Amino acid sequence: MTTAALTFRSATEADVPGLVALVESAYRGDASRAGWTTEADILEGQRTDSDGVADVVRNERGRLLVAERDGELIACCQLEHRGDHAYFGMFAVRPDLQGGGLGKVIIAEAERTALATWGTREMRMTVIRQREELIAWYERRGYRRTGQFSPFPYGDERFGIPQRADLEFELLVKPLS
């Protein structure tokens, strides 16, 4: 994979429809099965919506980082400054581009951006604990499991329709330097 043509920028409100489509394609429905980050077996319905993405874009404490190649939106991630750490979320790579190293480049840029912009020394994220393969990928990037869990928002279909009753999030952390 070449990164020469890869550019990063902060998302704008004009990007919201494309970002919703990107995030949905990476996690939900049959289209998401082209990549390895699909949640289609444990969650149906939507992953996000226009209002949720627009809220992230407008958040003054953060940014939605967009990765483009030749002007085409191919990946994104949310960064939010939360005092002593940055939160990493809404990470999506176009399914047909997954597995080629692009995710590693995106997360490295997110970490660099958080450190350079806010001077935060730690990145945090929450991942559905049942996503063992995804957690292992983050562990290979230097994140560690904390054993701290938070409940999945059952009953709030803005985040999907769970297909099992035991979903919860685990906090992962990584020191930045």
Spans of 5+ residues with little confidence (pLDDT < 50)?
none
Write down the oligomeric state: single chain
Radius of gyration: 15 Å
Q: Assess the beta-strand content as a share of residues.
A: 25-35%
The amount of helix comes to 25-40%
Give the helix tally: 4
How do the strands and helices of this protein lay out in sequence?
Elements: E1 6-10, H1 16-27, E2 43-44, H2 50-58, E3 62-69, E4 72-82, E5 85-93, H3 102-118, E6 122-128, H4 132-140, E7 144-151, E8 161-162, E9 168-175
Parallel strand pairs: 5-6
Antiparallel strand pairs: 1-3, 2-8, 3-4, 4-5, 6-9, 7-9
Helix pairs in contact: 1-2
How would you characterize the overall build of this protein?
The protein is α+β, with helices and mostly antiparallel strands and 177 residues long. It has 4 helices and 9 strands. The chain has helices spanning 16-27, 50-58, 102-118, 132-140; strands at residues 6-10, 43-44, 62-69, 72-82, 85-93, 122-128, 144-151, 161-162, 168-175. The strands form 2 sheets. Strands 1-3-4-5-6-9-7 form a 7-stranded mixed sheet, with helices on both faces. Strands 2-8 form a two-stranded antiparallel sheet. Strand 5 (85-93), helix 3 and strand 6 form a beta-alpha-beta unit. Helix 1 (16-27) crosses helix 2 (50-58). The radius of gyration is 15 Å and the shape is globular. The mean pLDDT is 94.
